[in-house]
Amino acid sequence: MNLFTAAYLARLELWGLMAAVVQGVLVMSSWLGWERATRHATAAMRYRLVCLHFAALALSPAVTMAIVHWAVSGAGIAPPQASLLEELPRQMDRYRALLALALPLAGLWFLGAAAMSLQLARDAWRLARLTLHPAPASLQQRVRTLAVERMGVAVPTVELAAVASPLVAGARQPRLVVPIRWMRLPSAEQEALLLHELAHVQRHDYRWNLLQRLTLVALWFHPVAWLLYRRLMHEREVRCDALAVSHGAAPLKLAHALLRLAEHRAPPALAMAATGDGDFVTRIHRLLGLDAAPTRAPVGARAAAFALSALCLLGLAGGRLGRVDGSMADLYHASAFGPTVSVLARDPAGTFALRIKRGQVLAATVGEQPLSRDRIRQHGSRVTLLDATRQPMLALTVTPQDRIEWEARP
Predict the structure, then answer these.
(1) What are the pLDDT tens digits along the chain (410 aa)?
(2) Has residue 351 been placed in a domain?
């Protein structure tokens, strides 16, 4: 990778970082608007909305960088402000300064992503090292009945382990892990918790959570990503509470079971535990019907939320500002991504044309006569076009940014 390609990628990195900051503010503002507008909406709607905002936060920097690249690829080359031989060294110094800024930022991001990956691996290891025991036949039959007859989902593998709360884990196939001291809970509370966990199985939350955790590996530096992930976990648990109740769980029994397990809950990780979310007050209030019944939000609140979401889309248009950034076009043409450029020039002696890529003259035509490859001599930025007798007839300076400079022929 040459200096120009590295500098172009560094410039895109800075555009992506700027987009992550600006879009993060816009996405968070949009979510706060929708959170207010859907305060009494169903758990399913709120969960979908927070997922949409989390995905928007993750994708917006990449989309912005793609727009910048697209805009720059269609931008022309700005005319030189001084002699090319004087201008090029100054440009090289600017590019080295750009790399001196971008490389430490990239290294810092990599270290943070590596730390997050290690934490993810640690959570997976903690799940893998659980000592599992076969569940009693009565419990397996009970789960099978609830899964098939109530929830209409595939029956997960049921096992016992020394965990504080029932949980669902697994990448391909779900595994329902039940606490060893399970039988201490009343039967109705057991059933409510099982239906809650089967709701996670029905929604494939154990897979979506893994994808969301992987997204956090890339967005570890972004406070908005962590805020949205916390809301996402909460709305996911509220949604599964609602599904459990809709499939026969007694709301009061589920609330009692959650309160019993809350004192021993473990930090949320890769598994889907009934006590994985810390905001129990809201969950208990919803289960007990203490929240107001779902109603339509005021028109003004929804209009404000739509307006804030529209700002997120408009923020992506900022990528087109790359078109007016002259140094981006320079770097693009000098990088490995740059196109082959055709240049047509004229002086008192007539016209000549060149095909250039990354400062290398690929073909030349003087007047109407194409020159063979051996009549094009290039040493660095200096190019000499030879006539049929191998005598110099035109000397040029060609930069990696595909600019040319020559002395007019008489």
Answers:
(1) 678 888 888 888 888 888 888 889 999 999 999 988 888 788 889 999 999 999 999 998 888 888 888 888 776 665 555 565 566 677 777 778 888 888 898 999 999 999 999 999 998 898 888 899 999 999 999 999 999 999 899 889 999 998 888 889 887 788 999 988 877 789 999 999 999 999 999 999 988 999 999 999 999 999 999 999 999 998 999 899 999 999 999 999 998 888 887 766 554 566 666 656 556 677 777 777 766 545 555 667 788 888 888 888 777 776 666 666 667 777 888 888 888 888 888 888 889 899 998 889 999 998 888 999 989 999 988 899 998 888 888 888 888 887 888 887 77
(2) yes
- How much is the pTM? 0.83
Residues 244, 150 contacting (CB under 8 angstroms)? no
Structural domain boundaries enclosing 383: 340-406
Dihedrals φ, ψ of 405, to 5°? -150, 140
The total domain count for the chain is 1
- Cα–Cα distance measured from residue 369 to residue 386, given in angstroms and rounded to the nearest whole number: 12
List Cα–Cα distances, 410 to 350, 380, 391, 392, 406, in angstroms: 9, 26, 16, 14, 12
Q: CB within 8 A of 331, min separation 6: which ones?
A: 4, 7, 8, 11, 95, 401
Q: Which residue has the tokens 């598994």?
A: 271
Half-sphere exposure of residue 344, counting CA atoms within 13 Å on the CB side? 2
- DSSP of 202-213: HHTHHHHHHHHH
Give 83's DSSP letter.
-
Residue 18 domain-assigned (yes or no): no
The conformation of residue 146, written as its DSSP 8-state character, comes to I
Indicate whether 278 belongs to any domain: no
Query: What is the distance between the alpha carbons of residues 150 and 166, in angstroms, rounded to a whole number?
Result: 18
Task: Please provide residue 176's backbone torsions phi and psi, each rounded to the nearest 5 degrees.
Answer: -95, 115
CA distance 247 to 202: 12
How many residues are listed for the chain in this entry?
A: 410
In a domain? residue 286: no
